Records
---
Amino acid sequence: MSISCRDPVAGFTAQPAARRAAGTVNLAPQRRAMRVAMGRNIAGLRSPSFPSVRRLFMVRHMKPTGWTRGLVIGLLVAVAAVVGLRGAHVFRTWSAPAGLHCPKDPRVALGCYEQHYRSIVAEQGVTAAFADLKTGYAADADLQRLCHAVTHAIGQAAARKYGDLAEAFSHGDNACGSGYYHGVLQGVAFATGRAKLLSDLDAVCAGIPGKERRSLDYFNCVHGLGHAIMAVTGDDLFDALHDCDGLTGAMEQNACINGVFMENLIVDGAHGGHYSKYLKPSEPLYPCTAVGEKYKAECFDMQTSYALGVVRGDFARVFALCASVGAPFRTNCYQSLGRDAAAISRNQVPATVATCDLGADREQRSYCVLGAVLDFVYYYHSDVQAQQLCAAVDAALQHVCRSTTAKAVGLF
């Protein structure tokens, strides 16, 4: 089942100004939540592990206090396409690209798409590759599911074509969770080699503008380093986390760590046979339960999507799993479930509220609501639907829901 079925495709076209209600805050040129392509064969079920895994939202845990810094650091871009897609109005054509007929077999499907788009980059350039992808996206459920991983391949090809990170970034596109930029970093890492890459990690993104203001491009670069380090370490999560510590700055380290954990989910089953050794159906919250304290928040911020796949979408069971984590990281886990609640409901208020109400106590429900309302803001690029969500939750949660919405909108 595809998660994003709006017409036009949600996240890929900006809201026309005439359709915005009075008082709506326009978040159009800003970050959008992401759909990460991945699949897993769990207990013999040959399907993606859980719908929101394909739309993995990298909204970092944000505490009610001291939250602005956390949000700026952790808003993982991502974005199944930043709503303006750098100003483009895209994903409106409904026919598939002529001649592209990739097999449905998950063991070979991703490789087929990768080869197709790498060849377009080599022969016609990045713009042509994204034009082709956007043409076929709406009518191709497999492309939707694999889109983030496919844009990694486009980025890797761009790194080879241009031979310069800043040049490759200048051709970038945020479609499908900004996977292009992650792929560029992977391409640079493959060309550079692990030893040289790690010898001066700070230098890798030094040429990308916006470090001081923590621009989207700069964040994509340091976050992409996490993906890149995983690529050159053979997807060894613990080695990659240690390597991220070589960056200077808390934002840079956290973004890199986030990229490591995201890549751990992306590679799991992506080519139909390679499964991450750092994901265990018997321990749905692993590796978060095994990593050091400094890495746990970033891990729990996304792990519930995998856990939900293991338990076949049983939110109550994952709430219970999160409760076993203990403070302070259980709140990351609850908030991650809020993102998943919004995702699986397709950001509809009644279903999202009902899912968060499965929390066993006020803490579980309140952090679930926080995660959900943040996702509503980024999904709709507006505070209107978020305010509707806040009005529908328990009266005791409405104040924190509204203040969270206001703070999120105020950062754009």
---
Amino acid sequence: MVRLAAPRGGARSRGGVTDLAQAVGNDDPHASGADAANDPIALVRAALARRTAVNASFFGAEAGRTAGLCHRMAERFARDGRLVAIGRTPAACSDVRHVAVEFVHPVIVGKRALPALGLVGGSGPLPRQADLVLEPDDIVIAFGTDEDATGETRAALALARERGCLTIAYGAAEAEWDFPVESPDPFVRQEVVETHYHVLWELVHVFFDHRGLLEGRQARVVHDPGESRFLYPFLGERETDLAAVLDDVRSSVIMKSEEIAGLRRQTLVEGTGALAAAAGELRRRLDAGGTLLAFGNGGSATDAMDVVADFRLPPHGWPPRRALDLTEDPAILSAIANDIGTDAIFSRQIIAYGRSGDVAIGVSTSGNSRNVIEALAEARRRDLLTVALVGYDGGRVAAERLADHVVVTRSEHIPRIQEAQASAYHLLRELVEAAADGG
């Protein structure tokens, strides 16, 4: 097993970043599994190469259908349909929660809130929940159909089709719109799926500016898009030209897939030193009986859910490891928020659960989330190892070195940040198992 020895500390863990980044940046797409098993740099190279290839293949093949699906989803929303996400496995549940929050609480200025809800296995059998909730104009998106050994997700999806819902899935699930991701690595599949449902959310809005192209609507000339014309030049076209709009949306799908490929590379290349150092210490602490505590807000809360799922129920035959999701108990979160304030929702739980020898991992797209910062500070006071995944320029977390190991995704586009951060924590999980016993 590879020994991922690296010094602790925010400043020190970044000391070898330049050399490591240069080494990883000279990636070889044909890096062998044997190389990756013996060298963290080779492991990161191989991980990046796998993701780049699968991302390009999937979106190259599915961009046109994705544009068509955005059009059909807009028609459903225009008829007061809702997006209903379903999933049963822990990883699938994190995607269910993630896609729902993206549609209900848009983070991009100008995007409208769209009705979305999630059905997960913990609330009863999925088919029974679906039977009570689903309406004919709804859109049902299923996660983890191939991993759900109970068959509940497939059964709920079949019920949705019978009811007349538009159905979407990411496996051999007999959905109306099925988008299988060809990769043996469940982490890679999940990352591509996340990009795909983010793209659906981003581009379904295009058709709300072309309501004459929606089924049952009369065509009319769209408004002059004015200053936004340079972003979506096709918005000034007549609404009778569906083919032109679909072609432009298809091009936008490709553009967004290329954007995440570049951002993922930046994140993993620049973050190799921090990830390797964090993984080595995390492995030592977990082997000594420590627990990983994960937290974040909104979409980042669902990332915390996924981090914990990956440690508790890992793929590849890896051993399960102790992990706690500080976002999962609504009674605790709402009690602290109501009685003290939202800044304390994670730090109070660090006080309750955190022990010397544990590890705290905070996820923030801005690096400035006050409750994440408070939790990291409390964790340090209690001798927890602290790890942060942040976007933009790193915010206060990076500037003030508020965590021992910081990985920065250098973008201001929140969906892309979240997608690259998923690659980072998936790679962290892989590096933990590559770390040598005893460090």
